[in-house]
Amino acid sequence: MSGRSADATSDHRFPPSDVDRLLGQMTLREKxxxxxxxxxxxxxxxxxxxxxxxxxxxxxGGNHGDGSAADWRAGVDAYVEGSLQSRLGIPIVYGTDAVHxxxxxxxxxxxxxxxxxxxxxxxxxVEAIARASALETAATGARWSFAPCLAxxxxxxxxRTYEGFSEDPSxxxxxxxxxxxxxxxxxxxxxxxxxxxxxxxxxxxxEWGSAGRARHPWIDWWDGWGEEWQIDQGNISLDEAALRxxxxxxFAAAVAAGVATVMACYATWRHVPLHAHHQLLTNVLKGxxxxxxxxxSDWMAVNQIDADFEVAVERxxxxxxxxVMVPFDFRGFIETVExxxxxxxxxxxxxxxxxxxxxxxxxxxxxxxGQGDEVPxxxxxxxxxxxxxxxxxxxxxxxxxxxxxxPIRPGEDVVAAGVALDDIGLSxxxxxxxxxxxxxxxxxxxxxxxxLRTALGASIPHTAxxxxxxxxxxxxVAVHEFPYVExxxxxxxxxxxxxxxxxxxxxxxxxxxxxxxxxSGRPVVLAPILEDADAIVAAxxxxxEADGVGDVLTGLAEVGGRLPVRWQHTMEQVRDNHTTELxxxxxxxxxxxxxxxxxxxxx
Length: 603
Ligand code: GLC
Hints:
Rossmann fold; alpha/beta; globular; 21 helices; six-stranded mixed beta sheet; five-stranded parallel beta sheet; TIM Barrel; binds alpha-D-glucopyranose
């Protein structure tokens, strides 16, 4: 690996300030406490103070009380209050996966997932969405979001494809930097939230079949995870030039935008865990790119480095991990690090560098000086944010095919089919209310069907299965993926399920024009319906304001979304990018523009 060989830990970049004074007062155990992040269900607020814990988090679906913003605020405040009882009263920073809005919280605005935002190519929109998400997150007391994900997805079989903006690194760089600016804002202490560029580095390039038990047979929790997990957290075999040219630029852009934290990646690069990769974490990220924030590990990712936990901890912290998302056994972790320092296997200098970086980030957030404004709870799910989300839904729609079927005009008789046309959970996808999302009315929102009915001023009959014999001028059919998250969404087969093709055929038989809406976190293979559909619109995972799709279908909005990833038509094309099978995949950038703009009054 080329790049600066100097160990960046010896070259910290912060001017002496309260941070260094504070560091000088801390005991070793208090320093290690700051390097410890614990899941809120595994620690009490009192223990946070006793152990001088640096951060508490909600993992995916980790909700407080009834999941409302008010209960979240009360829950988070209790942990912050607990941390203030520690000897030095250093506040925790509370972290959560607000990855498309403050998505764990009931009633929060759920924005389109990153893949849809990638289709907009609009950094101003992405920055505004991150800013709105930061306000809703800060309102509940959480001041650190594990976002933006800067993956550059290369294989749509990967369950985290929808968390990436694009397979084009220049798009990921531009939109990722915009997201960092939005999350952290221009006045971090006022209403900012620490952003987290993740997962460093190279995810999206793992190879199919290289994950799961093949990687760490000693971890028994793989057993319950079924036959998925074939590519997520797998191995990356790219050479250094390819890793640098495709996957490093988004992190360089995020660092240049001032990102406060970076999360390491579960994957291995040439079979070396990225969580234990000193060259990449320290010499490249902190040295070459000049990252002066702190690196946090992923959830139990340190455990994957070695069957011997002590060795795993030693390797990760010496490689450059500054804070460990333990997230359960905080005592065991703290005592392990203490033992390793006493034995000289982790240097005091490395601990001081890690803690200095963590305190510097807290100082930027105003936590050490008691700065910071109270963000009112009523911003959560507010009308302005929902209007912004609806605008993003429209901008992210990609018209993949249109043989003159669009727009649907008022007065035309329309039939609608497919469960995803009228289901908030399917529109939101994973990372919504619970870790892997759900179906049905999981939170407040408006469906695609709501939008169609409003735009056309008509009731529009809808069935899940397309049954019925009444003919109509226009049919609208939604096909979809059920929600999934991380490796649980790894799929060897992206073909449309037969029952969804059947819904399509039932409606095809009784309409003149048939429009298909695809609700998915990635390209799905549309071959069985490609020819017979008159129009196909990718809505991606539009979120709680999915009614915006209705404006796209009825000409109430101009449409300009562009594919952020190529869209293959067969699994052969997915497995082998060089196959010459026809029809050729729709390339990155594909998408029809509809400038015709009908007002509600005109037809
Ligand atoms: C998960 C994800 C990561 C997330 C973290 C905390 O496993 O890999 O993106 O931020 O754990 O929920």
